[in-house]
Amino acid sequence: xxxxxxxxxxxxxxxxxxxxxxxxxxxxxxxxxxxxxxxxxxxxxxxxxxxxxxxxxxxxxxxxxxxxxxxxxxxxxxxxxxxxxxxxxxxxxxxxxxxxxxxxxxxxxxxxxxxxxxxxxxxxxxxxxxxxxxxxxxxxxxxxxxxxxxxxxxxxxxxxxxxxxxxxxxxxxxxxxxxxxxxxxxxxxxxxxxxxxxxxxxxxxxxxxxxxxxxxxxxxxxxxxxxxxxxxxxxxxxxxxxxxxxxxxxxxxxxxxxxxxxxxxxxx
Length: 268
Prior knowledge:
The protein is built from ten helices and no strands.
């Protein structure tokens, strides 16, 4: 337990310092969305560290979960990095710059530090999973299946959105292609599915049932805090009535068949 606490403390100091350096860089690059890339790589890298520092003979589960979170972080981080390189700055951060004005960089410092703290909240479950030293069982195989659904679905959703945004003809147009026809935020949905997989992977660890808090916290953040609310506000500001119509027709989170809306009366 002492090693776990020391490892988590060192990890927090490391990600906090990394965020300070990135905050300094974003003042000159004017690309604060780099924090999202750092969050993805940070969660993955520090989670792997927790799994591989277990003071016992490494079991198959540790290697498997390390591979799973590594693939997740690498895919998401690279996807976000490509967007930073090829697309304009995320509208969420442009809005914050307009709201905070002269105090933008000062407030962004604390925003970056908040992201470092949030990073550790999602690293902690892997320190718990690392305490599960029994052989792989059926719950682990279910977890891998859930993980595959989340990873593949998220990959498809991100590729469809990135391809749509890179087309100059789609500026100001609502993306309704592929998975985006069935959900306004399929990337968030499959991201959440991905986090559900680790509940199965660590269920046999001491207090493993507490891992269910991870997808619950993620769900709350996506539905009520930094996910859908901020994205929808930005989408309405940039796409107006077209996005409002999209809201009427399309599920906000879980992919579902599109609804038929009578535009003249505004009812389904």
